[in-house]
Design brief:
The chain is of the alpha/beta class. It folds into 2 domains: about 5-55 and about 280-380, Aspartate Aminotransferase, domain 1; about 60-280, Aspartate Aminotransferase, domain 2 (3-Layer(aba) Sandwich), CATH 3.40.640.10. Helices cover about 40% and strands about 15% of the residues. α3 runs parallel beside α10. The radius of gyration is 20 Å and the shape is globular. About 45% of the residues are buried.
């Protein structure tokens, strides 16, 4: 049974606004900005790729129960959760590292393996967090544009690898494009990297990708795992973005290096208890995956009815070319009480739309249809 919208907002309204969007300042570190409003003020949140249906009822019950012991430090709960995750992925517990969201995992990787004179290689555009952390430790950052099919340009990336390249970051499915890079191409790429180069594979949107000839998780089907750091999060399909919990699975020696940079007591007691329940709640996970598939298909149906051609999505969000300045479109939706993703240079005419509940997506398309140039777009595209 799924929680009602009212129940979800009662439990999670604060959590929904906890993950604030950020932007890179032109002359300094990123600045953080709160979204202009909260769910209570009528804004529809389609901007952070959250699970608009979660958490499940079982997980909500676990959150309420765990809150009663929130006066206690969470350290006794760390190992049981790590062992449970290890069991799910059929690895030993010394290969598991927990973090305050997967973003802390990315920070630990940057601190452990990067620094002055060392290089991070990633696609553009992609999830930017590891780039921020790499910059904070004075690393060189190389960004390689995606291919015309919005996959990682692995040949071009391989051409940029040299002796100082310590980390390659690959988000698959990629954020913000929701596109896939084929598994066989990734295997070939990884096999050609020097032994000194590690690969961080971010599988935040794994559950939404589905099994296919193009995609297979590097946890479900391991490959050269001495070189790989595979990252997962509870923020997406499990609906726990506000509680901040992620994990990495890698070779024990890599986990030990990264653990040195973990924040003490970095995983809170409510997150550990609810995550353990979420891992067991397969029925809810399957339900969330099916709901997302239905919502995604409906988005494409609506887009095609308007002669729009979004990028093929393998996640819980869609990126779409508007043929107009993305910032103008973003502001139009803001004026209609809908928050969509920020601008993602160099894709300056594309918008990223997180999938919401059906009633939220109907509001999105109603707002789209009153764009001043929406009808002209249908006529010319």
């Amino acid at each position: 049974m799924m929680p009602s919208r009212r129940d979800f907002l009662r439990v999670g309204a604060g959590a929904l606004t906890a993950a604030m969007p950020w932007r890179l300042a032109a002359d300094g570190p990123p600045s953080f900005e709160s979204p202009p409003g909260t769910p209570d003020q009528g804004f529809i949140l389609l901007y952070s790729n959250e699970n608009s249906y979660g958490p499940s009822v079982r997980v909500l019950d676990a959150i309420a129960s765990a809150a009663q012991s929130s006066n206690r430090y969470p350290r006794v709960r760390y190992n049981p959760l790590a062992e449970k995750i290890a069991g799910v992925h059929h690895v030993s517990p010394d290969r598991v590292l927990l973090g305050c969201g997967s973003t802390e995992i990315l920070r630990m990787a940057a601190c452990a393996f990067l620094g002055k004179g060392k290089q991070l290689l990633h696609a553009s555009p992609t999830f930017e967090a590891i780039g921020r952390y790499a910059a904070s430790v004075d690393s060189e950052i190389i960004a390689v544009p995606l291919t015309s099919a919005f996959a990682h340009d692995l040949d071009a990336m391989l051409g940029r690898v040299h002796s100082s390249t310590r980390l390659v970051y690959i988000c698959n499915p990629n954020n913000p494009t929701a596109s896939l890079t084929p598994r066989k191409d990734l295997e070939t790429f990884i096999s050609k990297l020097p032994a000194s180069t590690l690969v961080v594979l971010d599988e935040a949107y794994h559950h939404y990708a589905g099994a296919s000839g193009m995609y297979a998780s590097f946890l479900d089907h391991p490959f050269d795992d001495q070189k790989l750091i595979v990252v997962r999060t509870f923020s997406k399909v499990y609906g726990l973005a506000g509680l901040r919990l992620g994990y990495a699975i890698a070779a024990p020696k890599l986990i030990q290096e990264m653990r040195r940079f973990a924040t003490q007591d970095n995983v809170n007691a409510i997150a550990t208890e609810s995550a353990a329940v979420a891992l067991d709640d397969a029925e809810a996970v399957n339900d969330f995956i099916q709901r997302n598939a239905n919502d995604r298909q409906e988005f494409f149906n609506q887009a095609m009815a308007r002669a729009l051609k979004p990028i093929d999505s393998h996640a819980n969000f869609v990126m779409m070319n508007t043929f107009h300045a993305a910032e103008d479109v973003i502001q139009h939706f803001r004026k209609n009480n809908i928050l969509i993703g920020r601008q993602f240079p160099p894709m300056d005419t594309y918008i990223r739309v997180s999938l919401g509940r059906p009633e939220e997506m109907r509001a999105f398309w109603q707002a789209w249809d009153v764009l001043p140039w929406a009808k002209n777009l249908m006529m010319h595209h």
